[in-house]
Amino acid sequence: MQVSIETTSGLQRCMTIGVPAAEVEQKVTAELKKLAKGRRIDGFRPGKVPPAVIKRMFGQQARYEAIYQQMQQSFFQTVQEQGVKLAGMPSFEPVVNEDGKDLEFKATFEVYPEVVLGDFSTISVEQKTAAVTDEDMEKMVDTLRQQNTTWSETDAAAADGDRVVIDFEGFVDGEAFDGGKASGHTLTLGSGSMIPGFEEAIVGFVAGDEKTIDVSFPEDYHKEELKGKPAQFKITVQKVEKGELPEMDETFFKSFGVETADEAEFRVEIRTNMERELKRALRTLTKQQVIDALVAGNEIDAPTPLVDQEIDRLRQQAVKQFGGQMDASQLPAEIFKGQAEQRVKVGLLMSAAIEAADMKPSEEKVAELIEEIASTYQEPEQVREYYSTNAEQKAQVESLALEDQLIEKVLAAATVSVVETSYEDVIRSANANQAM
C-alpha cells in the first residue's frame, strides 16, 4: 500500500493511498457473494447462478460497497501506522477506480494541533479576595424579602417602590420608533429598569391616568439612532399596586428550604450559602484568568470538526434555555462559532498541560469537590453515596479536580497579585463571566 501525506492548509491534511488491484478485487468478490446469497433469480436454481450473471446484476453495487470499505480500512490502518492524531472523520475521493487497476484515493481530514506550552512563570494573574460582610447579608435578606413581596391593587397615587401596570408608546421627533411600545407592562418604580426620568415621571399617577412625559435617552444608549435624543412617551396606567414585605417567620424561612422558626438560624444559613457562593465565584474568576492567559500565550488552531461539535452543544444549550420550543439546527452556526472555537482551544491546552505534567486526579481534591456539591443538599450523605457508586458521575468530578489541580500548578509558577474587593463585585463579575 502506497501512502503520501501533504499539508493543504492549517490543520488540514490530504492523504493519498494506493491499494493493489488484487486486494480490491478480493473485497468486490466477497461483496458479490454477500449480495447474491439467498437471492432467487428466474431461470436458475438457488446457488447455481453463474458468476457472470451475478456480476452483471450486482457488480456495480458490490464494487461501490467494496471500494468504500477498502478506503475506510486502508485509511484508518494508515492513521494508526503513521501515528496521525485525527480530529474528526475524513472525506474520501476515489482518483483511480477501475477494474483491473490499482485503487488510488484521497482522504481529506484535519489533525489535532501540536501544542508546545509556554513557560507558566510568564503568566500574571490578579487574584480577587473578598468576604461576606454583615451589610452584604442584610442586603441579601432584604432582596429575598423584596422578591417575595405580596402586591395588592390600590386607588392611591403611585409612589417610589410601588408597582404599576402600564401601556406606553414612545416618539422621537414626533415619530414612533421600534421597541418603544408595550401593553400591560409591569414596572416597579425605582427599579432603574427604564431610561432615566421615566419611572420618576410616573410617581403621582393613579390608575386610569393617561399622560405624556418628556425624557431623554442617555448618551450611551445601546441603540445608536436613539443616543441622547429627547423623547415623549404616552403612558396609560392600568393599575397601581402597593407591596407588602413578608414577615420573617417560619413560613418565609421554609420557602428557602430552611426548616426553622428562629430568625438567627435562618440568617446563619443565608450567610453560609453566600460564603459558599463567594468561594465558588472567586475560584471561577481566578480560573478564567489563568485560562485566558494560557490561550493568549499559546496560539493554536481549533480543528473544524471539534468546533462544529461544540457549536452543536451550544445550540442544544440555547434551545433548553428557551424551553425547547425550536429546532437547534435553525440557530445560525455563526452565532456560536467564536465561543465554540475558544472552548475547543481551552480544552486542547488544558489537556496538553495535564498530560505534560502527567497529572492524576487527587483523591483529596475529588473528595473536596463532592463534599462541596453535597453541602448544597438537604441529604448530603445521599449525594456522597451517589458519587461513590456512579462511576460516570465520579469521572466528571475527577475531570474538574484535574482542572483545579492544573490551575493551582499554574498559579504556583505565575506572578499573582491579590486584590481586595467586595462580595457584590465578585458575584457580579462571575455572573458576567458565565454569560459570555
TrEMBL record:
It comes from the Bacteria. It catalyses: [protein]-peptidylproline (omega=180) = [protein]-peptidylproline (omega=0). It is found in: Cytoplasm. Keywords: Cell cycle, Cell division, Chaperone, Cytoplasm, Isomerase, Rotamase. It holds the Pfam family Trigger_C. Its EC number is 5.2.1.8. Its main location: cytoplasm. Residues 161-261 form the PPIase FKBP-type domain. One of its GO terms (molecular function) is peptidyl-prolyl cis-trans isomerase activity. Gene3D superfamilies: 3.10.50.40, Trigger factor ribosome-binding domain, Trigger factor, C-terminal domain. PANTHER family: TRIGGER FACTOR CHAPERONE AND PEPTIDYL-PROLYL CIS/TRANS ISOMERASE, TRIGGER FACTOR-LIKE PROTEIN TIG, CHLOROPLASTIC. Consists of 3 domains; the N-terminus binds the ribosome, the middle domain has PPIase activity, while the C-terminus has intrinsic chaperone activity on its own. Involved in protein export. Acts as a chaperone by maintaining the newly synthesized protein in an open conformation. Functions as a peptidyl-prolyl cis-trans isomerase. Belongs to the FKBP-type PPIase family. Tig subfamily. This is Trigger factor. It comes from Oceanobacter antarcticus. The lineage of its organism: Bacteria, Pseudomonadati, Pseudomonadota, Gammaproteobacteria, Oceanospirillales.
